[in-house]
Design goal:
The chain is α/β, with parallel strands linked by helices. It folds into 2 domains: 89 residues, Ribosomal protein L30/S12 (60s Ribosomal Protein L30, Chain: A, 2-Layer Sandwich), CATH 3.30.1330.30; 151 residues, Alpha/beta knot, CATH 3.40.1280. The protein is 32% helix and 21% strand. Helix 7 links the parallel strand 5 and strand 6. The longest helix has 16 residues.
Length: 251
């Protein structure tokens, strides 16, 4: 049985203030926790129903020592999901700083992405296309927001996400590294020969890329509409199309 203080602590991690203060975040559901346990993230606690633990023989010994069996009513109290799902884990927030070597590959750079679902989906898209690093502007939604974590579907544990001042990053970047921006005008992406490395900048859902970054963009890319109806694409949908084109051109 969870103590009142433990209940209070676990519920507090649903708020960014307490995640920042305690440097921990929450992962929920069997699939997400399975992905977590295969990663190098440091698990600090696992709170599970008997149905989750029964018959599981793939829990690392170090994680197995952290498992605490709880009742469905307790899981409901600490869960952030409408329908709690068997297991919840607490995880240490890793300390991550990008180095210049990440720009030797394809990197996503996100300007003011505010929607948690979009960020989580973009992380999943990056994982699908083998993009290992995402650099976000500091005012983008926090990567350990529960909605971001859930939307990433476990890809969060394979893709590194950093928060940096994008102007500083781009102003200090090797000038040989190409920087591509997703815009509503520019070069038709379907007619471009795209390189295997560089930076792809994706802008805010409604405002696009920060104007301060425009001077660093080597080439503006746009995804043409074939109907003339919709004004624009969702940020994560646009990211998927752009990543697909980069990979199609280089494979």
């Amino acid at each position: 049985m969870l103590s009142l203080s433990k209940l209070k602590y676990l519920k507090s991690l649903h708020l960014q203030k307490f995640r920042d203060e305690n440097q921990e975040f929450v992962v929920e559901g069997p699939k997400m926790v399975d992905e977590l346990l295969k990663s190098d993230f440091a698990v600090s606690g696992i709170y599970a129903l008997k149905t989750w633990i029964t018959g599981k023989n793939d829990i690392p010994a170090s994680a197995g020592k952290l498992v605490e069996i709880i009742a469905p009513a307790e899981l409901a109290r600490i869960s952030n999901l409408k329908t709690p799902n068997e297991v919840l884990a607490t995880v240490k927030i890793p300390v991550k700083e990008p180095d210049e070597s990440i720009y030797g590959d394809l990197v996503l750079m996100l300007s003011h992405i505010s929607d948690p679902g979009n960020l989580g989906t973009i992380i999943r898209i990056a994982d699908w296309f083998g993009i290992k690093n995402i650099v976000c502007s500091p005012d983008s939604v926090e990567v350990y927001n529960p909605k971001v974590v859930q939307a990433s579907m476990g890809s969060l544990f394979r893709v590194k996400v950093y928060y940096k001042d994008l102007t500083d990053v781009l102003s200090n970047l090797d000038s040989k590294i190409p920087v591509f921006g997703a815009y509503l005008e520019g070069n038709n992406i379907y007619r471009e020969t795209l390189p295997g490395k560089g930076i792809i900048v994706i802008g805010n859902e409604s405002r696009g890329i920060d104007q301060n970054l425009e001077t660093f963009i080597t080439k503006k890319l746009f995804i043409p509409s074939f109907s003339g109806g919709a004004e624009s694409l969702n940020a994560s949908v646009a990211t998927a199309i752009i990543c697909s084109e980069f990979k199609r051109n280089t494979n």
